[in-house]
Amino acid sequence: MKTDQRSDQRWQACIRYAIVRCALDRLLVAATDKGICRIGLADSAAALERELGREFHSADLHRDSAKLDAWVRTIVRHLDGKQPGLDLPLDIRGTTFQWRVWKALQAIPYGQTRSYSEIAKAVGIPKAVRAVARACATNPVALVIPCHRVVRKNGRLGGYRWGIPRKRSLLDKEKRAPNKTVAAGFSLRGKGAPVSRVGRDAAVVCGNGAATGGRFR
Fold it and tell me: Labelling 215: which of 35, 135, 142, 196 has CA 20 to 30 A away?
């Protein structure tokens, strides 16, 4: 898979990040000047910083909670069940197939789930179930692209790069929420990042997560 060199240049610039406590332990939000490039969850700030450093090893990383405060507060409200929809600017990379999967995940309403096989059918490749699982596992932005809403055909949770207990907690909270009609949303904003570019650039996606839990159906 070829890497888009223009996209690579973005990761050599400044990336600001913030880490806060949340309902799922620690939340990291990282962004370029064009939008959010990473949302992660972990048990500790140190673990989040290590992973951020591995993924953006060429970037100049700065912890800047004030700069990202509005976006962080929005995501925390979402985790607390107070804001079902998320409409935040993203600056992420993915293959054409990954973007098709991620957009299909965006269409899953808050409080609902879909199976890996249903997403494969939704993107027009019914046999690509394992490839769908991999696209979910390499999602660089938790919650905004709600990969936690994809489960196995038999109803079991399947994998989640930020941990099965967090996936279970998210799904349970969404099912209990009174408003279940809103799907998460995202947009590519900022100079040089038009929506029309989505799905066209074949660049290596951020992240090193892997699908877990054995066979996906």
Answer: 142
pLDDT at 161 over 80: yes
* Sheet of strand 36-42, all strands in order from the earlier edge strand to the far edge: 36-42, 25-31, 14-22, 60-63
37-86 per-position pLDDT tens digit: 999 999 999 999 999 999 999 999 999 999 999 999 999 999 998 888 89
Identify the DSSP state of 49. H
The count of other CB atoms within 10 Å of the CB of residue 209 is 20
Active site residue 22: no
Closest alpha carbon to 157 in 172, 143, 173: 172
Q: Which of 148-152, 166-170, 200-204 has the lowest mean pLDDT?
A: 200-204
How far, in whole angstroms, is CA 57 from its chain's centroid? Answer: 19
Reference 123, options 147, 144, 96; nearest CA is 96
Active-site option among 37, 136, 147, 206: 147
CATH T-level assignment (fold) for domain 96-197: Arc Repressor Mutant, subunit A (1.10.10)
Residue pair 86/78 in contact by the 8 Å Cβ criterion: yes
H-assigned helices in 18-91:
45-55, 69-79
- Could you give the residue range(s) of every CATH 1.10.10.10 domain in the chain? 96-197
